[in-house]
């Protein structure tokens, strides 16, 4: 919009025509509709089903449940964005459907950050953290969530922990060309995005 537009003509400041309300078929009128969809929608435990995994942030204000045995896939991401935003050499992310997840308090207590836009307004993709202790909880994409398995209660015995490591074991590494440390685990290592970049060996050389 041109700078010389009279302020009274700014569409943001004009009252919205009433007709937009009567024709809307969206029960939430498009406003914060995402709060009424998984993973933020609070469903009954009967609708949600058996809880397979629980996760919680450091301060305990944010907790979530997963009703799926294992992730669709899991990855270590070595990209610069993950290094900076996690304060860690790489990110560990496990992919679930949005329906597989439910936050106990819905969207309450969560903060959002869209790193592409550098915006804290909710939009996808976004990074989700606890508003209080700032623990990173997940990256929400348009269709899936990438949760950080460090938050999941994996039990206390060696056997329980072995089992959880097996369930959340990564399929591959991505952005391995940006790695801070080398991980000689024999898993596929992509220089950038998986299936869209070159495969590297454990030492980072092209295969
Ligand atoms: Zn917290
Ligand atoms: Zn990354």
Automatic annotation (TrEMBL):
Residues 1-33 are annotated as: Disordered. InterPro entries: CENP-V/GFA (IPR006913), Mss4-like_sf (IPR011057). The keyword Transport does not apply. Signal peptide: none annotated. Pfam families: GFA. It comes from the Eukaryota. Keywords: Lyase, Metal-binding, Zinc. Residues 53-191 form the CENP-V/GFA domain. The keyword Cell cycle does not apply. SUPFAM superfamilies: Mss4-like. Belongs to the Gfa family. This is CENP-V/GFA domain-containing protein. It comes from Paecilomyces lecythidis. The lineage of its organism: Eukaryota, Fungi, Dikarya, Ascomycota, Pezizomycotina.
């Amino acid at each position: 919009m041109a700078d010389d537009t009279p302020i009274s003509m700014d569409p943001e400041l004009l009252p919205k025509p009433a007709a937009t309300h009567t024709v809307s078929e969206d029960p939430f009128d498009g406003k914060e509709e995402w709060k009424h969809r998984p993973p933020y929608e609070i469903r009954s435990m009967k609708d949600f089903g058996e809880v397979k995994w629980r996760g919680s942030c450091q301060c305990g204000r944010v907790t979530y449940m997963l009703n799926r045995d294992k992730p669709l896939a899991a990855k270590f991401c070595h990209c610069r964005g993950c290094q900076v935003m996690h304060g860690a050499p790489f990110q560990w992310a496990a992919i679930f459907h949005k329906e597989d997840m439910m936050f106990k308090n819905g969207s309450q207590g969560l903060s959002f950050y869209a790193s592409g836009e550098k915006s804290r307004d909710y939009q996808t993709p976004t990074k989700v953290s606890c508003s209080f202790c700032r623990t990173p909880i997940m990256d929400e994409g348009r269709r899936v969530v990438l949760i950080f398995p460090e938050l999941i209660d994996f039990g206390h015995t060696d056997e329980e922990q072995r089992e959880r490591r097996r369930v959340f074991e990564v399929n591959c590494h991505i952005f391995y060309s940006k790695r801070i440390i080398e991980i000689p685990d024999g898993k596929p290592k992509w220089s950038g995005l998986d299936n869209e970049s070159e495969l590297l060996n454990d030492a980072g050389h092209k295969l």
